[in-house]
Amino acid sequence: MGALKIQEDGIRVEGRTQFDKPVTFSHLSTARDEALTIDSFRGIHIQARNSSEQVTARMSLTADGKAQAICNRFEVFDNDNRLLFFADSKEIGFKLENLRILESPTRSVSVDAAQDIELLTSAGEVRLNSLLDITISSKQGEIRLESGNIYIDGQPRSSGRGTPQLQLCVCHNGRLFVATQFADCRADRNICE
């Protein structure tokens, strides 16, 4: 143990100190120009208790390289005390002006969920850009495009020669169906239900 001084406001230890048994204190600090170093060969565990002496939050740095936080809610703030990130048992949230997540410059990115996946924006656009194909498929449900204006740009123009093609028709409820080349775009009840 380094030099030990007992003062009116506490105990001051100068130099490196090793504790072999648990030590209890309410405040731990260093001189203004020094950093506080806590070193352990088996890990560092910090826990907080409430007034009933129940452990309410724990943080651990383990010897195998893990950093763990066990608590009801985990929060990260910036230097201006603005909330940037939070996580609890119900949700994970980011409160940022610009968020970049799930980026892989050379490999694929996969987002899987047992139920719903939502992409929402209260202002601005949502863009899907791809070098190759974009495939949208639904195994059991429907694919809906709900907008007052739907554009399909960049389609090739036909000269009128070649094999006959089909027509793309729209029901009154917005459902799309295909008709033969010269037929009227009329559908029976089963198609436009």
UniProtKB/TrEMBL annotation:
GO cellular component, one term: cytoskeleton
InterPro entries assigned: Sarcoglycan (IPR006875), Sarcoglycan_gamma/delta/zeta (IPR039972)
Alphabetical list of Pfam families matching this protein: Sarcoglycan_1
Keywords assigned by UniProt, alphabetized: Cell membrane, Cytoplasm, Cytoskeleton, Disulfide bond, Glycoprotein, Membrane, Signal-anchor, Transmembrane, Transmembrane helix
Keyword Cytoplasm: yes
Topology relative to the membrane: Single-pass type II membrane protein
Compartments where located: Cell membrane, Sarcolemma; Cytoplasm, Cytoskeleton
Tree of life domain: Eukaryota
Family stated for the protein in its record: Belongs to the sarcoglycan beta/delta/gamma/zeta family.
This protein's name: Sarcoglycan complex subunit protein
